[in-house]
Structure formats: structure tokens, C-alpha cells
Amino acid sequence: MLGKQISCTMESGSTQFFFLIDKLRIQLLNSIEGATEKDYFQEEISPREILSRIESVILRIVESLSKNEAPVLELPNRSSWSNVDFDSGVGLQMSSGHSVTTVKSNCPASVTKFAQILKILSVIYRLVQSNSYATKRDVYYNNTQLFGSQRSVDTIVDDISCMLKVSRRALHVMATSKGLIAGDLCYLEEDGTRIDCRSSSAAVSVSSNVSGIRNIVSSAKFVMIVEKDATFQRLLNDDFCRKLSPCIMITGKGVPDVNSRLMVKKLWDTLQIPIFALVDADPHGFEIMCIYKYGSVAMSFEAHSLTVPSVMWLGLLPSDLQRLMVPKRSLLPLTRRDENKLNSLLKRPYFASQPQWQKEMELMQQSKVKAEIQSLADIAPDFLTSIYLPNKLRFGGWL
Amino acid sequence: MLQEIRQVLRLVVLMSKQGRRHGSGSTGGLLILLWDEEAGAQRLNCTVAAAGSWCSGVEIKALQLDLKGRMFPHVSPSLEPDPEDLIPFTELHGSLRLLLSFQMKDARHWPSDWQSDVEAVLQAFSLANAGIQIHLKLKFAQKTSVRDFRAKIKAKVSRADQPPLLLDVSCPEQKRWFLSKPHGWAKRASWCQGGHPVDGGRLPLGIPPQAMDGGLLGDLSVRLVTLLHPCVLQYPNMPTELKSIKVLVYNPCNIPVSGPSGFFQTLPSSMDCQHLGLRGLQCPAHKDPEFRVGTVFTTEQWENEKKCDDEEQESSHLPVQQSLLLFLLLQHRNPFCSHLSDFVAADMLIEHHLEEILCNNKPAVMAAIRTEIGNAMKAQNQRKKQQEKLNSAAEVILSSTMSIVSCSSNVDFRNACFDLMKVADTHALSSHLGESLRRVMSWRFLPVGRCYSTQMEENLLHHGSTKSEI
């Protein structure tokens, strides 16, 4: 009943409907123009330079052995918060004076990792030299006994990227994307393949070569990042992209992979339209949103090419749960793990520039409850796509 | 001769234990002086002198009057030794607590290598009584030879329920083939000059009926202590291989006893060598000087590769050969023993029935020995696993490095690699890099606090060193 009373038309192209979104866009564009030029992570490094950096690593190893010293590799520490600075205009970026982890070649505990790094360096060297590409999976299958697991390869590729100060894409190692995208968007892949995301029934996988995308065409008014695949599929089934056309929606299916983050960044850099996040009202969802917006500690060395500090929090807000009187049966108590995560999040440097976000998180902390987006279906089956999202977008319900 | 010397040692130790004041030490000196009156004489004189805290309980008069006749039935009174021979000893160790001289007849019937036997027994005695400096002086056939047995490095092995033991843990001379040549480029590296005894605890022993019938009563037990030489703890990646196991048995006076050869001959068959990681044990028939006291077993691996000269061992290619010394220290307690003669009798009974005692407790003794050897092998097997891991990784490191060098079209880079390793082509580069990589892996040095490093060497030469190890 409530839904019928406040339902509104969502005809495509309605100026009134997108008034606040357009206004937001202008604000964002103005803030971009006022920003100072920053030193961005080098996107375009020549293959010769990459080979040279790898050769420098090898030369240091040979030099050590020539002096009968055990070679070591120094990897920037990508897991420590103390190695990260926060800049509200960029997000989490690796400190200039970051600590390193030393990988020794003469210590049984680390020699395998040393060998793994050298092996992957040699694979990358050949890929770059021959201008060919391989996936991380291909690299793993190169020597499964040495690597042990795909995760080892994934971690080491990122370590090498950070050590050489080169993006992973420049290393010619690709990753299969897990993200999906749909909506008012067309582009060309690097190999010339035309991608049209406007199909109403099926989404398109995020490209595994985002940096190679060109000729992006879109009239979308906004991009919506959806945390979970289940919610994304629900929106797809409900024909969300047509109902709130023109728009784009994208999901990383949980914690986003690098390609999904690159795609969001690409859309922002190219289209410069507002980007909203639709996540569960729980600490995990909040953290996922922060990854898109401010980045992660592990990838802080590539912050400039991955973060979109302009991401806005559309929902599900903890205050929405009270305001919409979501049925109590749909609310879940915070677990001990949730509480620990929440406490940890509240200590993060984000909130100095986001007082409203802090209030929402404190509200969650006080209420000790969380809720998934799916809980809105307990109000009405189509509440999410018919009422909640349209109202939020029309009346500026974002933070 | 040997028997008499051992008898004297037994007396001195037992008298010292009886008369020892609380807190008195275990240091001092022992002089064994053997001389003939004239060239070609068939009689040999022996003087035993002792000084220091280890024999503080000895009463010379009681020894000479009461027990001498019973203890030495085959000897006759001797001339007194030349005081000149005693002066250096007393200057070093203080006034004599014991001076006993006797004469042995029919020296021509003694085994030709009797001197070596005496030296071997004194050497073994010194190992388990490291606080006592032993001086052996031989003056006969117009020749004089002096041999000192002194522990450069001592370690006290303490345990709550055991009497403290002071062991000589210095690395034997013949095992120091590499100690004088630390690897040139390991600037900080040093060698541990000693070993680290491991106390295996006390094993109660049942007294066999024959021994009981002979009068041996009370509580009998054996304490097992192991010592591995040379110590390579500071080189955690260095592969090792157990070359030999030497078993030394000591009576309750801490005097080495010979045999029991019959019991130990069965040791190889009682060991599950495969489970221990050994390739088999052999008891060699020959009698090298090292093997005169105690029973020595060599591993089959060592037997096959023995032809290799120790001095020429290339550590990057061969594992370090280690020897395990296994002390079996018998302990006896009988509350009904009060007189010195009781203790002497019990001690002699234990020696006499040693074979039966050990056979009577064979399963337990073998199990205990197996445990001690197994513990030593654990460390070796762990090193072997680590070595395999390092070797496997080294292959990958080398192949990856060479892949990049070989593929590179950067002439400066390639030349820089060749120049650093002083080679002319990739084949030589691969070979040199491989050797260097394996060398830096094997010779990784990590200082260990309890090791006796070469930086201490000068101190050791002058003052010796004692550490406590539990």
C-alpha cells in the first residue's frame, strides 16, 4: 500500500526525475576541475622499460652471487596499514616510506617463494618481449608443483607489479573477470570486438582487458555498483536498466576483482557521471563499497588507477531500516565478527571526510542489527526496483 | 698395567666421594708416570699422583696401609719417582693428595701396543671427567714422552635427579678438517669448536641373578648422554651424515670399562635402521686407535665412501660427516654400603657382570639407545629435507635467471652478468651461478648463542671454557 502511494513514474528521459542526479554531476565536475594535478601511477610504461626493470632485478641477483652473498628480493609490504596513507581525493595509497618484506634465497622458509617470483618474472619477461598475453591461470599451470595454488600466483603477480612499479596489465598477465555489467553502454574491445551491454535479459562479463577498451558510447545518467550478484540478477530480471534508463549497473560479485574496479574507474574517467553503490546494510557491504571508493591496502600501490573517490552511498543505509520500518524478521543480529569488523572500520581514515557515513555506521553499532538488500522484499516483492531505488535516485537519498 | 691404573682411579674417585665436603669441586690433576729403572729392564714402575678438589676426600695413609695389598696382588713396591717429575704437576695443581707407586713385572709379556691402550683409557676417562687434567709421562728405553689429556671445552650436564656431569665436548682433532679453513667469503662465519650434549635421562636396570648371587644389590641404573661432533648448528642448511656411533660405557666411578662386546655386537640387528634413517650399522673388526675403548659402529654409507680423504672433502658437494658419542653411565646406589671396600666391591661386581646386566635389560637398553640415535637422526633428516627443498628451488632460480639472460637482447645487461661472474658465455654463466647459489645456500650462517665460536678460540687455548647445558 505504501508502495502504491508513493510510487512514481520512471519514464526514460524524465528531466524531473534526474534533476538531482544531474545537479550532483555538475558538482562533481566542478570539484574535479578544482583538483590539483597529481603524480599518477604510470599507466604507459614502454615494454622496453619493463624488460629493463626485470633485468635490474636479475642483475642484482647475479651481483649478490658474484660476491658469494645470498640474493634477496625486497617486496613492498602490501598488507600493513602502516604502509598506507589516506588522501580523500585518491583514497588509500602506498606511503613513500613503506616497509618491505625480504625474501631470502638461502632460507628454507622463503626459498620457494623466491623461486616462484623468479619463475613468474621469467614468464612475464617472455610475454612482454613477445607481446603476447597469458592469464594468471596459464601461469599457474606452467608449474603447478612449484606454485601449489592459484592464490600463490595471484599474490606474486601483484607483488611483482608493486615491486617493479608497473601495473599488472603492463606485465601482460591477464585475469579472468568475474564482474558483470549491463545498461546503456557500448564499447570496442582492443581486438575490435563490439560490446553492447543494452540487452535487457543478460549481462556482459567485464572485460579482461579494460585498459584496451575504446570508443565508449553511453548516455547513462549514472552508474550503480551492486554488491552482490543475486541483487544484480534481481535488478536485471526486473528490467531495472530500462525502467531507470539511461543508466549502467555493474557488479563485482562481492569483493571486486581488479578488472571490475578498473571498469568502474574507466566509466568515471570517461563518462564522469555519478556513481552510486548499492550494498547490504552490514559491515562487509560497507567495506566492499569502500574498496571501490578508496581502494584496498593490498592494491594501494595502484590507487590512482583503481579508486573512484566520488562514489556515493545509495543504500541500503542503516537509517533506511528504521525509516522504512523493515520487518524485524528480516533484520539479523550482528555477529561477533561483524562487531569486530565494524569497530575496525570506524577506525579507518575514511570518516574524517564522511561524517554522515560515520553516523550511519554508529547507528548500526548501536542497533546491533544488519540487513541484506533482499530484506526490502519483505515490505513488498518489487519494493526495491519500484519504490526504493527510484525514490532514492529521484530525491537525492544518497550519502 | 691398565687394570692397576683403573684400580687406582676407582679408589681415588670412591674415596673422594666418601670424604667429599659439601660443595667441593671436580677439578684438579692426575699424573700417571711410567718409567723403567734402567734400559732393557723387564720391570716398569708406575706412579699415580693426584691433586685438586676432585680428590679432596682421599686419605693417602688409609689407601696405602689398608687396601694396597688387596687391590694390587700382582705388583710389588716400587722405588719413589724422581721428584723432578712431580714438580711441574704440583706447581700446576697444588699439593698432592695422592702419591702411589708400584712396580709391574714381566713387561715383555705385555701387548706391544699397551701404551696405546693406556692412552685410550685415559682419553675416555677425560671425556667424562673433564675437570681433571691428566698428564701421562712415559720414561723408558731412554726415551721420554709426555701426553696431556685436557678438555678445551667443558659442558656441565645437569638434571634434577642426577649427579652433575662434566663432559669434554671439544671437537676431536681428527674431526676438524674444515675448522681451520672457514670458508673465505663467510666473513662473520665461525665454527663451533665443541658439541652440545643431550641428556637422555636415567633408565633403571634390573640386576641379573648371577650378579645378585655375587653380592650385587641395591638400585642400578644407566644414564644416557649423547654428543654429536662436529657441531654445525650455526650452519642450518648444511647437510650432514652420521658416519659413526661410538658407545662408551662407564662404571659408577665414571671410569670407562671395556666391552661388553657381546651385547653391543647385537646392536645393529636391534636397530630399525630404515626407520631411523640409517642405511645400516656395521661394527668394524679393525682396531684403530680411536676404537680401542668403547664400541664403534660405522654406517654403511660411510663404509662405501670411506676412500674419500677427509682433508679433500668439498663441503659444497658432500655432507658433513658427523660422529655420535653415546655415553652409558652406570649408576649404583646401595644404602647398605658404608665402607669403602663395599663400594669397591660393588663397582668391581658391576664391571664383572656388565654383559649379563645389559643382556638382562636388553629390550629397555636397546630401546633407550634407539631413542637417542633416533633423536640425532631427526636433526639430520630434517636437514636433508631442507636441502631437498633448497636444491629444488635452486633449479628453478637458476633456470629462470638464465632464461632471462639468454632471451635478453640487451647487450649491456648480458655483458654485465658475464663480467660479474667472470665468464665469457651463457653456459659458463649457468655453471658458475649454479655453484655459487648452492654454496650460499649450504653455507648460510646463523650465530647460535650456545655454540663455541672461533672468536672464543684464543680464550679456550688459555683458559678453557665451561658451559652448562641441560
TrEMBL record, chain A:
Domain Topoisomerase 6 subunit A/Spo11 TOPRIM, residue spans: 222-393
SUPFAM superfamilies, alphabetized: DNA topoisomerase IV, alpha subunit
Domain (Spo11/DNA topoisomerase VI subunit A N-terminal) ranges: 113-173
Active-site residue numbers: 141 (o-(5'-phospho-dna)-tyrosine intermediate)
PROSITE patterns: TOPO_IIB
Location(s) in or outside the cell: Nucleus
Catalysed reaction, written as an equation: ATP-dependent breakage, passage and rejoining of double-stranded DNA
One Pfam family recorded for the sequence: TOP6A-Spo11_Toprim
Key words, A-Z: DNA-binding, Isomerase, Magnesium, Metal-binding, Nucleotide-binding, Nucleus, Topoisomerase
Any GO BP: meiotic DNA double-strand break processing
EC number: 5.6.2.2
Cofactor: Mg(2+)
This protein's record includes keyword DNA-binding: yes
The UniProt record lists the keyword Coiled coil: no
Family per record: Belongs to the TOP6A family.
Listed name of the protein: DNA topoisomerase (ATP-hydrolyzing)
Organism: Oryzias latipes
TrEMBL record, chain B:
Pfam family, one: DUF4554
InterPro entries registered for this protein in UniProt: TopoVIB-like
UniProt GO BP: meiotic DNA double-strand break formation
Recorded superkingdom: Eukaryota
PANTHER family in the cross-refs: TYPE 2 DNA TOPOISOMERASE 6 SUBUNIT B-LIKE
Protein name: Type 2 DNA topoisomerase 6 subunit B-like
Species in which this protein is naturally found: Oryzias latipes (Japanese rice fish)
Source taxonomy: Eukaryota, Metazoa, Chordata, Craniata, Vertebrata
